[in-house]
Structures are given as C-alpha cells and as structure tokens.
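During the second half of the funding period, the structural biology subgroup turned its attention to how the target accommodates small molecules. The most pressing case was nicotinamide-adenine-dinucleotide, which had performed well in the primary screen but for which no bound structure existed. We therefore specified the complex as follows and requested a full 3D prediction, including the ligand pose.
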Amino acid sequence: MKFNKICVLGLGYIGLPTAATFAAHGIKVLGVDTNSDIVDTLRRGDIHIHEPGLRETYKTALASGNLTVSTRPEEADAFLIAVPTPFLEGRSGEYNGQQYKLADMRAVTSAAEAIFPLLRKGNLVVLESTSPPRTTLELIAPILARSGLTAGRDFHLVYSPERVLPGQILRELIENARVIGGVTSESAQAGADLYSVFVKGEIIQTDATTAEMVKLMENTYRDVNIAIANEFARLADKFGVDVWEAIRLANRHPRVKILSPGPGVGGHCISVDPWFFVETAPELTPLIYNARRVNDAQPRYVLELIKRTVGVLKGKKIAALGLAYKPDVDDLRESPATQVVHILQTEGAQVEAWEPFKPDAKLPGIHMAASLESALKDSDAIVLLVRHTEFVNLKPSDISAATKACLIFDTVNAWESDAWHAAGFQVVRLGVGK
Ligand SMILES: NC(=O)c1ccc[n+]([C@@H]2O[C@H](COP(=O)([O-])OP(=O)(O)OC[C@H]3O[C@@H](n4cnc5c(N)ncnc54)[C@H](O)[C@@H]3O)[C@@H](O)[C@H]2O)c1
C-alpha cells in the first residue's frame, strides 16, 4: 500500500519524532495536537520537548514543506494515534479490598472520534498509545465504525506499540524491531507497508491484541524485576551487605540478570502500564500488583534511610539532585524523585531541587534551584536521586566549595564512596548495610 499523506494525532515525545521522521522520508505529514500552545510553538519552528537531535530533524522536516501542524486533523491515507494514556485521576478500582489504578483513555477516545468523520475506504488507522488489552478491538473499532465503515473490511486498523528509549528516540524509531498487530492480516500488511518507509529494524506482523499485550508485557517484566532489585536492596541493608556488589556478583551467573534498585519507578510507561493488566484482570495479577506496590513504596523507603541518619528532618535544608524519572532526560512524569522531595517536605525539611534538564520546571510545591550551586548553598544534606551523567561525573572538589553539607544520600550508586569519604563526605548509599 502507498501513502502520500498521513495525519499524526498527538505531538509529544512519540508523535513529534514520528511525524518528523515520516516527513524526512518524503511523506506529507499533518501533525495534530489539541494543545494550541504546542501547535504555536511548533509553527514558530521551535520544539517543546527535549530529545537529542529532534530540533534539527524537526527543522529539516518543516523546511522540506512535508510537515505542517494544526489543532485539527484532515483527510489522509493513514492516521496515527500517539496521545497520552495516563492514570485516571481521582478514581481507582478495587478487587478483594485492594485498590488498583485505572487507565485514562479519554485522549484515545477523542482522537478516534476526531478521525471517524474523515475516514475513507482503504485508509489505515494505527494506535500507538500504550493501551489495555483489547482496546483496538473494543474501544477504537466501534468508534471508527460510526463512519459507516468496518475495520478490517473497509479500512485497515492496527495496533503498533512504541518501544523507543527517551534520549535515543530518533535512532531507535528507525532501528528497533517493530511489532504490527492488525485486526486482519491485510491490516497488518498495510501497517508494515507504512512503517517500512523508515524502519530498518525487523517488522513483525501479528494480531492487534497480541501486539497490545507485547507492549504491556515488556514494561511489566521490567517493573517486576526492578521491584525484586528494590527488595534485594532492603534485604542487603538489613543483613549488612552492599547490594550493588551482591548484584554484580550474582550477575556473573550466566542466566541471571538482576536490574538496579533505586528511589522508585517512574515515567509514563513502566510505572503505569502494569496497572493496565491489573485493571483488566485483577484476579490473575497478584505478582504484578505487588511489584507495583513495592516500587511505589520505594520513595518512602528512601525517606526512612535518610531519617535513620539525620533524625528529625524539621528545619533541615536538603539539596535534591535530579527530578527526572530516569537519567539524562527532561521527563518528570510520575517521577519517584519528585515524590521523595514531597515526602521530605511533609516531614518538615526545606528542599531545594536542581534538575539540570529542566531547571525552569513548574512543579506544585517544589522549589526549583536556579543552579547546582544555589541548591547546595546552606544545605545540611544532599540527596542524589537521578543518575544523570553530569552528576556521575561530579568530583568531591566540584561541590565542596558550594556546600557546608558533608552528608550525602546516594540512591543510585553514582558516587564512588571511597573518593568522597577521602574528601570528608559521609556517603550513605541505598542498599548498603555495611
Ligand atoms: N514517551 C515514551 O517514551 C513512550 C514510549 C513508548 C510508548 N509511549 C506511549 O505513547 C503514548 C504517547 O506518549 P507521549 O510520551 O508521546 O505523550 P505526550 O504527553 O508527550 O504527548 C501526547 C500529546 O498528545 C496531545 N493530545 C492529547 N489528546 C489529543 C487528541 N485527542 N488529539 C491530538 N493530540 C492530543 C497532547 O497535547 C500531547 O502533546 C502514550 O500512550 C505512552 O504511554 C510513550
């Protein structure tokens, strides 16, 4: 199948690189976002998110004339939905007295509702947003059927999960293997035809529900494995062991690959997606449920670690280094680091947070420092929450002049304790009971 014009709904971390990459490969692309501030920014030739290489790719796509942006979709050969699927705020489900989070599918629903009046015979519709199993068949297909056309018969419908790594999105979009799940094999083939415009990785065709499950399984697998690493950290702490050394030694076993503990699990994927399984089958998912509980409790575990050394936190000044949900990105969504800051403040600490990737972030209740130095100034203790490369590269001499604090809590095993101890700092590392 040939595609002359496509419409990408949702111009965030996924949709914008995807739209720009299609345009860079000669396809006419209309990028659509319901947020008019984002559309205004993009129309000015600027971008609203941090992703290495995206600014250049976007500018090239814009200059080629292949990419335009709007708040409203238009007729096209294919429609891609890359809108958010976060938690539903203020509501939860319950099974056997245990609460679980629910997916907020309103953006997906409204994107499908914007497409159906424009749908023509032979079109392709792709859902890329991470979604609970059977969303393509049971949510998207019925909405698109309001056009009078039937998915799999009159138009193609596909679920294709996005598995790019933030920080590497432009490269991984092209190089990663891509799973394309069609409601029919013809739909899957149409999806494969579309992505083969730029994908160099393997394109694997399957059915839509399998593709939905694949995405959720990938992230759930990581969440459960991080949960066990976090429990290992707690156990190491109790038994007088250095968990980082123990993990390194255990991973010498040829069939063991333990992940790293940390202050929790965040971001818009791993901390969210496992709930989509729990929501749709709570009776089948006790392990997934409990792994989520373990990881969600980890910021509080960090608090306990700090309190054990500092004692009463009231009035203490703490510098929190890093707010992103993972290293070297500016994405603060569902970040456990921000939760640690909130919990510290609830205990009466005064926290100055420094996030080099988003120094001007506006987060309710969090005071952002203008620089590393101003976060450190007058602090009684330093809490390292994200393993940003620039933090890992800091040497004791880089910060000793800026702070009177000599107490460091390293939740990500970034600072080689010996060098810091030699410089007069006391470093308390997560998961180190020695
Ligand atoms: N960010 C990642 O690394 C990543 C990786 C894999 C999968 N995903 C999934 O991809 C989806 C998109 O994620 P993202 O990180 O790009 O989200 P994002 O929040 O960065 O961007 C989504 C954009 O969609 C816009 N939007 C909301 N409703 C809309 C509508 N009805 N029509 C058009 N635009 C609309 C929003 O204004 C926003 O700009 C989510 O389901 C997410 O779970 C994200």
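Two results from this model are relevant to the next phase. Residues 208-239 form the longest helix (32 residues). DSSP finds 16 helices and 16 strands in the chain.
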